[in-house]
Amino acid sequence: MNKEDCLTGLTLYKGNSSEAVVLAGYVRAGFLVSLPFGGGAAYDLIVDTGARLVRVQVKTGKLEDGCVVYNSRRHRGSKYDTFSRYREDEVDFFAVWCPENEQLFAVPAAHSLNVEGRLRLAETRNCQAKKIRWAREFSWEGHIQELRAERTRQRNELTADAECYKSSASYFQRQ
């Protein structure tokens, strides 16, 4: 990306568009979503799964050589035009929206703490099999299913705890 794109707001437009798509995806899936105030956070969205709060950094991907490629560094647009890596304790997931194929992906932060993230869509030309991050392993649908499963487990644990408490209370009332 060239400096003119940053100055004309193209980068801001792409980022806002991607955030809107990801936010809508979480809301459609039934989750509450909050936005951090002031723009100083390392994440773009906070997703309340009912079991925990998930910090999500949104990235815009592009198709390149059979992969969805995204920048997994933060850009601080200033006169110094600096980039820095995210730390593992700052973000839980990178949500990657690829407008070229209209697909969403969710990548755990531990997988994306390099300079660039790559999710492979097509087979490699050299038959490489090791150290490939297949896009299908980071599908949006799988991510949503995992978050829903966490919520269900949490609710089941709370229900079991409540039943245990009720039976304990009735036991002591009979004594």
Shape: globular
Strand order of the largest sheet: 1-2-3-8-9
Radius of gyration: 20 Å
Question: How many strands, which pairing sense, and closed or not: the largest β-sheet?
Answer: 5 strands, mixed
Which CATH first-tier class would you pick? Alpha Beta
CATH topology annotation: Trna Endonuclease, Chain: A, domain 1
Order of helices and strands: HHEEEEEEEEEEH
Q: N- to C-terminal separation? A: 74 Å
Coarse structural class? alpha+beta
* Helix share, percent: 25-40%
Label the CATH architecture. Answer: 3-Layer(aba) Sandwich
Strand content: 25-35%
Tally of helical segments: 3
Unreliably modeled segments: none
How would you state the average pLDDT, rounded? 82
What are the key terms here?
175 residues, alpha+beta, Trna Endonuclease, Chain: A, domain 1, three-stranded antiparallel β-sheet
Brief characterization of the structure:
This protein is α+β, with helices and mostly antiparallel strands and 175 residues long.
Give the helices and strands, then pairings.
Layout: H1 3-8, H2 10-28, E1 32-34, E2 45-48, E3 53-60, E4 62-64, E5 67-71, E6 73-76, E7 82-85, E8 93-98, E9 103-108, E10 116-120, H3 140-174
Parallel strand pairs: 3-8
Antiparallel strand pairs: 1-2, 2-3, 4-5, 5-10, 6-7, 8-9
Commentary on this structure:
The chain has 175 residues and is α+β, with helices and mostly antiparallel strands. The protein has one domain (3-174): 3-Layer(aba) Sandwich (Trna Endonuclease, Chain: A, domain 1). 34% of the residues lie in helices and 27% in strands. The protein is built from three helices and ten strands. It has helices at residues 3-8, 10-28, 140-174, and strands at residues 32-34, 45-48, 53-60, 62-64, 67-71, 73-76, 82-85, 93-98, 103-108, 116-120. The protein has a five-stranded mixed beta sheet with strand order 1-2-3-8-9. Strands 4-5-10 form a three-stranded antiparallel beta sheet, with no helix packed on it. Strands 6-7 form a two-stranded antiparallel ribbon. It is globular, with a radius of gyration of 20 Å. The N and C termini lie far apart (74 Å). The relative contact order is 0.13. The mean pLDDT is 82.
